[in-house]
Design goal:
The chain is an alpha/beta fold. It contains 19 helices and 27 strands. The chain has a five-stranded parallel beta sheet with strand order 3-2-1-7-19, with helices on one face. Keywords: FAD, Flavoprotein, Membrane, Transmembrane, Transmembrane helix.
Length: 647
């Protein structure tokens, strides 16, 4: 058992360092814990910097404590000063102001540093990294000024940076030299994830390495690719991995490899010094994410108290959330002995993969929403067996338990864990809500749920009956009004009386030619056919990967313009007549395609104003009907032309 009245020092004021300090202070009221952090900010949650960059949370939401040189709490003291030396012999640390601080137990939680890629031009102005709060503030400033953003690195942080930097006005490019998110994703998963990113406004460039960053007057003006293509941009963000901060440990003579070497209780080669988080190396493994660091704090603090709770390593879980497409790799997704089950639907933007040994779930991958995730996590944690019938059903439908209704989070028992990072149960959340915490911000603040990685926030939203915000696309205002105009023109076509010869003195003979002269009927007819084929280009653009010219929202804009022009030409060509037999079918299909397309345009243009939780499903359904009708038009128009000329 360790002696009382110990002086404990934690180097590092990131999430893992703060958790270590609080857990150590909570174990013994006589401990005095001092935390050193070199950043000029109050401790903050680095995990949520991506949400801060994207505007989903405010600056105050990422704070995890107050920094002060003197503290009213005699248990804890947080000091804004960089530690420059560890004197193991005298058991003291020295800060940058040459002040010595004695310790009985020292915990190193110095994290890691962003790797700077070896690319010519990386030192140009407006080439930024995404790692710290200061980095994020710089990116937020560039976000409002930049017209073109190029992100180097397609791991979780790179994807989050690209999504966070996207605005309605700018263009964002993401370089995926080898893979998206993680190499564990197969080709289908990569394609579905790329589709989702494109829909969110991020243009993915695959397999085309950077040769150099081009500059002018010391500033970025573009990125040159190996293919010879120049991507014009005024901001470059690199997220190319991290390296553990081991400098202090090496200088102090501690054993290091890639990270600071630790045993199963997170002790270094010096029994009085522990290392946790991204700077630590356990069993030959370092981790570049926060969650394993949280797991390492428990065995470390337990051992400081005189007990043993060995650390056995952590899964390399990856969680990513953007818009309505959360994605994750959870558990052991690289076990060669596991049997895998895959369900993929590219049209729906869904990819799901299970890893099973002896009918027990050991890991899973998913792209897109999955209502069964809470139950899936429960089976992973409790190691319950999955029925063979459920696995067969998964192969067909992508769901394991569709036949047995899945519980809403409100129907889960009180001890059901909603937030895995902070072990917050449904009962705790319900009590906090009954106490008046009825907003996402207040509920997270009161319970600490959702403040670490944020992946449980969809469940918190279910508890609160809170709708999720939707994406904003480019040209949403003109697309909205073109859609409205199309609906008005369609209504005129259906409701107005057909135009006849000489029925109005205001309709001159020259104007009547448009309706009744054979030559002009052919001109309007072939124009209508050409416009219908052009309108189909959007569908081809979304599904043919090689046709990646321009932003998808720009194509939608052109598509809406073509739709209105085509409808006006249709009114001219038909004289507002609905026709008979197959001509009537052609007219009905054209008008139905116009109506469904216009509804899709209205839905998408107002996406950021309407927060109906089922909006996406409505839009998806109308889109499918629209494209089905649209692809019928060339065939019907072709038959119509054939019938006119040959019969």
């Amino acid at each position: 058992m360790q002696a009382k009245h110990q002086s404990l020092i934690v180097i590092g004021s990131g999430p893992v360092g703060i958790r270590a300090a609080r857990m150590l202070a909570g174990q013994n009221p006589s401990h005095r814990v001092t935390v050193f952090g070199e950043e000029p900010h109050a401790p903050y949650n680095r995990v949520q910097l991506s949400l801060y960059l994207s505007g989903e949370v405010g600056r105050d939401s990422i704070n995890i404590g107050e920094r002060s040189e003197t503290s009213t709490n005699t248990q804890e003291q947080w000091v804004n000063s960089r530690i420059v030396e560890i004197d193991r012999r005298q058991k003291r640390v020295v800060d940058e102001n040459h002040k010595s601080w004695p310790y009985d137990i020292l915990v190193i939680a110095t994290g890691s540093t962003a790797v700077v890629p070896d690319i010519p031009g990386i030192d140009l102005e407006n080439v930024l990294r995404f790692r710290t709060l200061a980095d994020t503030e710089s990116l937020l400033e560039r976000k409002e000024q930049s017209h073109g953003v190029f992100v180097i690195g397609s791991g979780p942080l790179g994807i989050e940076a690209a999504l966070g930097m996207k605005t309605r006005e700018n263009r964002v490019f993401l370089q995926a030299r080898n893979y998206l998110l993680d190499p564990s994703l197969d080709k289908r998963a990569q394609e579905i994830l790329a589709d989702s990113l494109e829909t969110a406004g991020v243009h993915v460039l695959q397999g085309d390495p950077i040769t150099h960053i081009k500059g002018q007057d010391g500033k970025v003006i573009g990125v040159q690719l190996e293919s010879g293509k120049l991507i014009e941009c005024d901001t470059v963000v690199y997220c190319t991995g991290v390296t553990p901060n081991t400098g202090l440990a090496k200088d102090a003579g501690l054993e290091t490899a890639r990270g600071i070497l630790v045993n199963d209780v997170m002790q270094t080669s010096d029994p009085a010094i522990y290392a946790v988080g991204e700077c630590a190396e356990h069993g030959g493994q370092t981790y570049g994410v926060v969650a394993p660091g949280f797991e390492q704090v428990s065995p470390m603090s337990t051992h400081v108290s005189g007990f043993a709770m060995p650390y056995k390593g952590s899964p390399g879980n990856i969680q990513l959330k953007f818009g309505s497409q959360p994605s994750a790799l959870i558990g052991d997704v690289n076990n060669p002995h596991a049997r895998s089950y895959v369900y993929a639907n590219r049209l729906k933007g869904i990819y799901r993969k299970l890893f099973v040994i002896n009918q027990r779930l050991i890991g899973y991958i998913h792209i897109g929403r999955w209502d069964e995730l809470p139950s899936l996590q429960e089976f992973l944690t409790t190691e319950q067996k999955i029925k063979t019938r459920s696995l067969l059903q998964f192969d067909k439908s992508g769901n394991l338990w569709r036949d047995s209704a899945q519980k809403h989070v409100k129907d889960q028992p009180d001890d059901y864990i909603v937030c895995l990072c902070e072990s917050v149960t449904r009962g705790t959340l319900t009590s906090a809500m009954e106490g008046g915490n009825r907003t996402m911000e207040s509920l997270c603040g009161a319970t600490k749920a959702g403040v670490t990685c944020g992946s449980c926030k969809p469940l918190l939203a279910q508890l609160l009956d809170a709708p999720a915000p939707n994406l904003v696309m480019r040209h949403y205002k003109p697309i909205y009004w073109f859609s409205v105009v199309a609906i008005v023109l369609m209504a005129m076509t259906v409701l107005f009386k057909p135009i006849g010869i000489g029925e109005s003195a205001q309709v001159t003979w020259q104007l009547e030619k448009l309706w009744f002269d054979n030559f002009w009927k052919q001109v309007s007819g072939y124009t209508l056919l050409a416009l219908s084929l052009l309108a189909a280009g959007l569908s081809i653009r979304k599904r043919w990967k090689k046709l990646n010219v321009g932003h998808l929202d720009d194509w939608r804009y052109v598509h809406s313009i073509i739709g209105v022009i085509a409808l006006a030409v249709l009114m001219i060509h038909t004289g507002l007549r609905m026709g008979n037999n197959l001509n009537f079918v052609l007219m009905a299909v054209f008008l139905a395609a116009t109506l469904t397309g216009s509804l899709v345009g209205v839905f998408m243009a107002r996406n950021h104003h309407w927060t109906d939780l089922k909006l996406r499903q409505h839009r998806t359904w109308w889109s499918r009907v629209h494209y089905t009708l649209l692809w019928m038009l060339p065939a019907l128009l072709g038959y119509h032309i054939f019938a006119v000329y040959y019969f």
